[in-house]
């Protein structure tokens, strides 16, 4: 994106103003590449959705809380404990009032998606690839399973008007 | 009403000391000030009436039986927030890891154990048991569908076993097995930037449940199968999505 090889912008969201937050996966940020990768992540997300439409959760970056999806928790046979663990993450996301939480990690995606169902949240959980392709206008009909009703028909591809 | 007296056997070689031999700088396990910064920022605090500070204090006091059988070891995700917060940089996640490592095989969480075992069923390392044939079929089938129905992508590639490609991309089993359309957005992004990438039919599965089990031998075996698959194709970069 920085080298101009991947052209993405947030024009698609200028009028819609849909709000996004992003999860800092423990393994990627705190445990491996640290705050620099958290900054890269925010650069990518803000480019895709628009800086004014990005709301950071609190705390964030290396100081963010684990969502509880890692360490095998999802397959541990301890769903009650896992969801209790995840209550802080749910509150963090809910407090941003964002419609979407972007989860750049499979475990985070599964857990944060489950927490939404369990705690009856109002957000949707998105892979980064989904929102990037939507912004680029190349997200097909069958690639929209995780979009909410507000975005599922935005930027259809192939574009029926062409 | 008073609590029972705790007898501490100073002569017993305790678990904490065993772990200190394994961790860099001994994991600083003897430096605890009991400040509680770890517990105050831990989402697992309260589960099993346990928290990171209490877990370490129990280990320090030689309460090995209690520590080695505490289910809390499976409720900590080893996220390292406690370690980052700790003024003495104490590796409580390392302690938890070693508790998991010593867990009796028959009592391991069935889901995690099953997934680890499944990953050795064939050389894909898939925790869902997907075979090389399964993977090749799904990828080729989905690719063809998208090439036909989406005009800008009729020359998009999703190679398998293309020797000499720069990037070896791995794939979590979840997508090809349960939601194959979700593989495609990443293919599109790679296509848009002209990345020279391939999947491998061996070692393609990104997940590693043996890691969660803290089974160090199986974790290593799993990774070596994958690393060999990357090397055998002569790829320069192993693009790990997990």
Written account of the structure:
- The complex is a heterodimer of chains A (162) and B (242).
- Chain A is mostly helical.
- Chain A has a single domain (11-143), classed as 3-Layer(aba) Sandwich (Rossmann fold).
- Chain A is built from six helices and three strands; from the N terminus they run βααααβαβα.
- Chain A has helices spanning 29-33, 35-49, 79-85, 87-96, 106-118, 128-135; strands at residues 20-22, 100-102, 124-126.
- In chain A, strands 1-2-3 form a three-stranded parallel β-sheet, with helices on both faces.
- In chain A, 48% of the residues are buried.
- The model of chain A has no long low-confidence stretch (mean pLDDT 96).
- Chain B is mainly alpha-helical and 242 residues long.
- Helices cover 43% and strands 3% of the residues of chain B.
- Chain B has a three-stranded parallel β-sheet, with no helix packed on it.
- The model of chain B has no long low-confidence stretch (mean pLDDT 95).
- The chains are: A mainly alpha (162), B mainly alpha (242).
- Chains A and B meet through helix 3, helix 4 and helix 6 of A and helix 7 and helix 10 of B.
Overview features:
heterodimer, A: 162 residues, mainly alpha, Rossmann fold, 3-stranded parallel sheet, 6 helices, 36% helix, B: 242 residues, Fumarate Reductase Iron-sulfur Protein, Chain B, domain 2, 3 strands, 43% helix, elongated
In summary, what is this structure?
Chain A is built from six helices and three strands; from the N terminus they run βααααβαβα. Chain A is mainly α. Chain A has one domain: Rossmann fold.
């Amino acid at each position: 994106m920085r080298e101009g090889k991947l052209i993405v912008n947030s024009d698609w969201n200028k009028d819609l103003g849909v709000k996004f937050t992003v999860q800092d996966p423990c393994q990627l940020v705190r445990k491996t590449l640290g705050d620099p990768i958290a900054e890269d992540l925010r650069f990518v997300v803000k480019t895709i959705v628009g800086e004014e439409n990005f709301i950071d959760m609190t705390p964030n970056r290396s100081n963010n809380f684990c969502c509880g999806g890692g360490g095998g928790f999802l397959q541990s046979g301890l769903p009650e404990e896992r969801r209790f663990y995840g209550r802080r993450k749910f509150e963090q996301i809910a407090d941003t009032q964002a419609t979407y939480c972007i989860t750049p990690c499979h475990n985070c995606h599964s857990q944060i998606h489950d927490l939404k169902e369990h705690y009856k949240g109002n957000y949707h959980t998105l892979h980064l690839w989904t929102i990037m392709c939507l912004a680029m206008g190349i997200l097909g009909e069958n690639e929209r399973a995780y979009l909410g009703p507000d975005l599922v028909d935005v930027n259809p591809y192939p574009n029926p008007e062409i | 009403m008073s609590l029972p007296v705790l007898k501490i056997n100073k002569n017993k070689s305790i678990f904490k000391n065993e772990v200190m031999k394994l961790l860099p700088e001994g994991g600083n396990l003897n430096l605890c000030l009991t400040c509680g910064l770890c517990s105050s920022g831990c989402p697992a605090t309260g589960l099993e009436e346990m928290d990171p500070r209490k877990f370490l204090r129990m280990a320090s006091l030689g309460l090995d039986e209690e520590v080695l059988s505490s289910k809390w070891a499976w409720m900590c995700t080893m996220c390292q927030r406690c370690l980052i917060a700790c003024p003495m940089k104490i590796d409580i996640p390392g302690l938890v890891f070693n508790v998991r490592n010593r867990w009796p095989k028959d009592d391991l969480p069935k889901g995690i154990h099953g997934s680890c075992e499944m990953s050795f069923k064939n050389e894909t390392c898939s925790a869902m048991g997907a075979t090389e044939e399964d993977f090749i079929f799904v990828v080729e089938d989905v690719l063809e569908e998208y090439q036909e129905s989406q005009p800008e992508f009729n020359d998009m590639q999703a190679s398998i076993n293309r020797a000499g490609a720069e990037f070896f991309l791995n794939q979590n089993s979840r997508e090809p097995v349960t939601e194959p359309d979700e593989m495609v957005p990443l293919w599109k992004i790679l296509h848009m930037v002209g990345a020279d990438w391939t999947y491998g039919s061996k070692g393609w599965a990104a997940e590693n449940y043996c890691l969660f089990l803290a089974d160090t031998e199986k974790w290593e075996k799993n990774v070596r199968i994958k690393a060999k698959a990357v090397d055998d194709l002569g790829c320069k970069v192993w693009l790990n999505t997990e």
